[in-house]
Fold this protein.
Amino acid sequence: MRLSTKVRYGMRLMLELALNKDKGPVKLERVAQRQSIPLKYMRQIAYSLEAGGLLISVRGPGGGYILPRPPEEISLIEIIKSVAGSLSLVPCLDNPRYCERSSCCATRELWEEASSALKEIFEKKKLSDLVKRQLALGGV
C-alpha cells in the first residue's frame, strides 16, 4: 500500500505553512518551488485542503495561505481525509455494496483491522509533531 502523491504533497504543504505560521500568509508559489512540486498540482491540493477547512486563503498583495488553527490542533488524519477522502485500504470498507462478498469475506476483516490501525496512528499524530521532527532534522 502506498499513500498517493497528493497526500504526500498535502502533508508537505501543511508542514511548510506550520513552519512559517508566525511569518504571515505564505504564497503557494514559494511552497511549490521550495518543495519541487508543480504549481498547478499544488493549487489543486490547496483547494482540497481549503475545502476541508485546513487552509485559509488571504487575498491581496501580501496574501497567501495560513492555517486556521495551531499545528497542535490539526491531526494528520484531517489532512489525509481532506486530500484523499479516505484512508481505507479497500473500497468495500467505505461502502459494503462495492463488493457482493463484503458480508462473507474473511479478508475484509483483516483490511478493516489494518485500516483502523493506520487511522489510529494518523489521528494521534499532529501537524506539530511533523514540525518538531523537521526542526530536529535541521530543515525549515
Observations:
- The chain has six helices and two strands.
- The two ends are 29 Å apart (CA to CA).
- The mean pLDDT is 91.
